[in-house]
Amino acid sequence: MNGRLLIYLVLVAATLPPARAETEGFAYGCGASTCFWRRPIVDPPPGWVRDEDAGAHLKFNAFARKGEDFTRADAVLYANAVYRRNAEPTLAAQIAADKDRILKNDPRSRIFEAPSTQNADAKRLVTFRFVPSQSDDSWETVAYDEEGDYYLRFVLSARTQQAHDKTLDAFAAFVRGYGKVPKKR
């Protein structure tokens, strides 16, 4: 290969963006400035729909079953992206911080590792179950991922154990709805 072509290819490669999570960004007014947030691009499982209003308000990708309201549903799914530079230094530390936050709010809650969940790229995601000590708190299953500059959380949140357990298959399909490789639209 001639030297000029090699230099050209190196220069072109240097200008390409780094590999990153498949996310989409949003801007909103916060005080006198503009703030930004990102969410993973994830396909809803069959029978579920995105709730744009709830997602924009809560700053994540929000889903409820067709015909249900996200804020009133017995079980919901959501996904968010946490910018690494504003978070813990490792995914393990991010998970530990989530556990600490749960235990601070409910010291008697139980947290245990659940079977891993697979995304569209066949990557196995570490998954935890958060079981509340009080009946009025949420049952949650959270699958964690890291892609590029982001930690990703895929969450099933339910008002009861029955609603939670009934939604586990939809949660697995939800996580499979995300892949690092951009989707063709």
Ordered list of secondary-structure elements with their pairings:
Blueprint: H1 3-15, E1 23-30, E2 33-40, E3 48-50, H2 52-58, E4 61-65, E5 75-83, H3 91-105, E6 110-118, E7 124-131, E8 139-147, E9 150-158, H4 161-166, H5 168-176
Antiparallel strand pairs: 1-2, 3-4, 4-5, 5-9, 6-7, 7-8, 8-9
Structure description:
The protein is of the alpha+beta class. It has one domain: Mog1/PsbP, alpha/beta/alpha sandwich (Protein Transport Mog1p, Chain A, 3-Layer(aba) Sandwich), CATH 3.40.1000. The protein has five helices and nine strands. The strands form two sheets. It has a seven-stranded antiparallel beta sheet with strand order 3-4-5-9-8-7-6, with helices on both faces. A two-stranded antiparallel sheet has the order 1-2. Strand 6 and strand 7 form a beta hairpin. The longest helix has 15 residues. The two termini are 37 Å apart. The N terminus is likely disordered.
Q: Which structural category do the helix and sheet elements fall into?
A: alpha+beta
H/E order of the elements? Answer: HEEEHEEHEEEEHH
The dominant shape is globular
Largest sheet: 7 strands, antiparallel
Radius of gyration: 19 Å
Number of domains: 1
Report the oligomer: single chain
**For the terminal residues, how far apart are their CA atoms?**
37 Å
Give the beta-strand count.
Answer: 9
Any idea what the CATH architecture is? 3-Layer(aba) Sandwich
What is the CATH topology? Protein Transport Mog1p, Chain A
Count of helices? 5
Sheet with the most strands: spatial strand order:
3-4-5-9-8-7-6
Mean pLDDT: 86
**CATH class, please?**
Alpha Beta
